Amino acid sequence: YPKKDFVGKRILITAGPTREPIDPVRYISNRSSGKMGFAFAQIASLRGAQVKLISGPTSLSTPYMVERIDIETTEEMLKSVLDNFEFCDVLVMAAAVSDFKVDQQSSKKIKKKNSLELNLIANPDILKEISSLKKNQVVIGFAAETENLSENASKKLVEKKLDYIVANRISETGFPFGSENNEVLILSASGECYELNSTKIDIASFILDIIKERISF
Ligand code: C5P
To answer: Per the domain annotation, does 139 fall within a domain?
Structure first.
């Protein structure tokens, strides 16, 4: 059994994809399985933290002792993060948030036709929205990159005012979606840099180890 070194700490985790409706039966989404966020929730809970998991649609079961809040759209995820951010010590944004939503959702199912144009507009960036509300929370973002992993990750670290960013390498050998394993580069605002190729559970546990001294116990 893991050590109970996060007793009394509150960890807010987002996981999975979001869904942006097109009409009552169709939506736009992505390939996120939710496994990274759920693994984080599981290990944080086992280490004694009080965990809230804001989850998009996934087929995963809720880890033991974790409070789960189900959402579908980015707007719903943003609202739920805003409701809970003030009361957490750590925010882990592992969700693959949809950057776009359909401008005019149809209230009726769109009929079959030769072509269909959808106008997509920008969704809010949840991490940017909460950056101004940040007090003592440790904020961890995730990024999936196919190229220039460290450049893109450090750019996001600064732009989103994160304490840590965990960048997934997406390559022929490292395809993180749905996998138990992940190849990651972890960068911190204070200049730390770690490279790991491990299970999602071990990566989550490693992150808990390195953030531990940042949280006041
Ligand atoms: O999509 P992107 O690579 O910018 O995602 C990096 C981080 O930002 C992730 O932690 C993701 O959860 C978060 N994000 C967000 N709101 C968005 C898009 C991404 O908070 N609209």
So the answer is: yes
Rounded to the nearest 10°, the torsion over CA 65, 66, 69, 74 is: -170
pLDDT in tens, 52-111: 999 999 999 999 999 999 999 999 999 999 999 999 999 999 999 999 999 999 999 999
Rounded distance between C-alpha atoms, residue 100 and residue 207, angstroms:
29
Tell me whether residue 208 is in a domain. Answer: yes
Ligand 1 mutation pick, 53, 92, 97, max ligand atoms within 8 A of CB: 97
Per-residue DSSP letter, 214: G
The number of folded domains in the chain is 1
Q: Is the residue at 113 inside a domain?
A: no
CB–CB of 32/177 below 8 Å?
Answer: yes
Is residue 1 assigned to a domain?
A: no
CA of 141 to the centre of ligand 1 (A): 7
Catalytic, 197? Answer no
CATH number of the structural domain spanning residue 135: 3.40.50.10300
- Domain, as residue range, for 25: 10-99+121-214
Pick the atom of ligand 1 nearest to 99's CA: 21
User: Under a CB-based contact definition with an 8 Å cutoff, are residues 16 and 55 in contact?
Assistant: yes
Residue 49 CA to ligand 1 center (angstroms) comes to 24
* pTM, entire model: 0.95
Instruction: Give the separation between CA 129 and CA 116, rounded to whole angstroms.
Output: 32
Count the Cβ atoms, other than its own, within 10 Å of residue 111.
8
The binding-site residues of ligand 1, defined as CB within 6 angstroms of any ligand atom, are 74, 93, 95, 97, 99, 123, 125-127, 141-143, 156, 160
